[in-house]
């Protein structure tokens, strides 16, 4: 391989790397610490007692993330009328 | 759980504005603020009219978060983009940055004086104590804390507007499109929705 060809190849590789640089996805890890998200205070939805609200129809135990996710997933799937009709 | 997302099926949306009404009612949104609205293109042209319900899309890389000078935004573990009204200065940068026109500003006085920004919270409230009066007054209802999904999506009569775990609603949409046999021919379908034989994610699966 000639030096010129190597140079062209390196240039193309650089161009591709530069061109696709913006196509990546940003880090999505959300860190929740000491009751805060990125410095802003908030509580997580599963940390609530479902009985605390008059209108809660879903059931999970306070602090049970999996239970809350299951409750939400059930409601989520009920948006699919194909499965409701079957 | 993946990230909470909205998905609006333009083939089903009938521009009833039920989602807008549900949002207004659920969150007691003040006059002049529209957290959600229905956009119609080719209005009145038979066969070409399409409507879509638009609100905050809870972007994974939200431009509003990037431009906020007081850094009042935050993203929750469920991928919901929220903001702290105690920090917001009502500058309007987020409104210019948002491609969906989601940030809204209530009129706070004469001469068009702007109040603090208000936007769709995916019915997840805000920094105040969950399900408290203070939270409701500032941000509206916190349905996620009640194990529910946003009122707009759950109230949608034609189920054009889907809201919830991105993986689940994408599967619902994919199944719907394949059943009706229209829509999967569009460019990018395979990238967005995978192969037709892809099974729905099992309960509790991480993405």
Provide the fold topology.
The complex is a heterodimer of chains A (86) and B (207).
Chain A: H1 3-19, E1 32-33, E2 36-37, E3 40-41, H2 65-77, H3 81-85
Antiparallel strand pairs in A: 1-2, 2-3
Chain B: E1 4-8, H1 18-27, E2 37-41, E3 50-54, H2 63-67, E4 73-75, E5 81-83, H3 93-97, H4 133-139, H5 151-155, E6 161-165, H6 166-180, H7 189-193
Antiparallel strand pairs in B: 1-6, 2-3, 4-5
Q: For the largest beta sheet of chain B, what order do the strands appear in spatially?
A: 1-6
| Contiguous helical run count of chain A | 3
Major sheet characteristics of chain A: 3 strands, antiparallel
**CATH topology-level name of chain B:** Alpha-Beta Plaits
CATH architecture of chain B: 2-Layer Sandwich
CATH class of chain B: Alpha Beta
- Cross-sheet strand order for the largest sheet of chain A: 1-2-3
Order of helices and strands of chain A: HEEEHH
Rg on CA atoms of chain A, Å: 25 Å
The 3D shape of chain A can be described as: elongated
Mean pLDDT level of chain A? 85
Low-confidence stretches of chain B: none
- DSSP strand tally of chain A: 3
Task: Give, in order, the helices and strands of chain B.
Answer: EHEEHEEHHHEHH
Cα Rg of chain B: 18 Å
Give the structure's gist in a few sentences.
The complex is a heterodimer of chains A (86) and B (207). Chain A is mainly alpha-helical. Chain A has helices at 3-19, 65-77, 81-85; strands at residues 32-33, 36-37, 40-41.
Describe this structure in words.
The complex is a heterodimer of chains A (86) and B (207). Chain A is mostly helical and 86 residues long. Helices cover 41% and strands 7% of the residues of chain A. Chain A has a domain at 35-86. Chain A has helices at 3-19, 65-77, 81-85; strands at 32-33, 36-37, 40-41. With 207 residues, chain B is an alpha+beta fold. Chain B has one domain: Alpha-Beta Plaits. Helix content of chain B is 25%, strand content 13%. Chain B has helices at residues 18-27, 63-67, 93-97, 133-139, 151-155, 166-180, 189-193; strands at 4-8, 37-41, 50-54, 73-75, 81-83, 161-165. In chain B, strand 2 and strand 3 form a beta hairpin. The chains are: A mainly alpha (86), B alpha+beta (207). Chains A and B meet through strand 3 and helix 2 of A and strand 4, strand 6 and helix 6 of B.
């Amino acid at each position: 391989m000639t030096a010129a060809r190597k140079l062209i190849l390196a240039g193309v590789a650089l161009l591709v790397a530069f061109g696709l640089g913006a196509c990546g996805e940003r880090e999505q890890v959300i860190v929740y610490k000491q009751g805060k998200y990125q410095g802003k205070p908030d509580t997580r939805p599963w940390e609530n007692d479902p009985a605390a609200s008059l209108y809660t129809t879903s059931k999970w135990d306070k602090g049970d993330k999996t239970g809350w996710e299951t409750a939400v997933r059930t409601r989520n799937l009920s948006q699919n009328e194909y499965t409701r009709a079957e | 759980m993946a990230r909470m997302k909205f998905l609006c099926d333009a083939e089903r949306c009938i521009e009833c504005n039920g989602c807008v009404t549900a949002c207004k009612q659920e969150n007691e949104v003040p006059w002049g603020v529209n957290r959600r609205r229905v956009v119609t293109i080719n209005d009145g042209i038979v066969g070409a009219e399409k409507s879509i319900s638009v609100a905050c899309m809870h972007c994974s890389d939200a431009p509003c978060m990037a431009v906020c000078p007081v850094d009042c935004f935050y993203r929750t573990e469920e991928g919901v983009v929220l903001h702290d009204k105690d920090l917001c200065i009502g500058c309007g940068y987020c409104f210019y940055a948002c491609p969906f026109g989601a940030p809204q500003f209530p009129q706070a006085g004469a001469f068009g004086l702007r109040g603090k920004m208000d936007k769709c919270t995916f019915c997840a409230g805000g920094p105040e104590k969950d399900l408290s009066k203070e939270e409701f007054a500032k941000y509206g209802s916190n349905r996620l804390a009640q194990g529910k999904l946003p009122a707009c999506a759950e109230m949608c009569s034609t189920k054009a507007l889907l809201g919830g775990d991105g993986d689940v609603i994408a599967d619902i949409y994919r199944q719907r499109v394949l059943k009706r046999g229209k829509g999967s021919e569009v460019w990018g379908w395979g990238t967005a929705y995978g192969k037709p034989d892809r099974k729905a994610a099992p309960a509790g699966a991480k993405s």
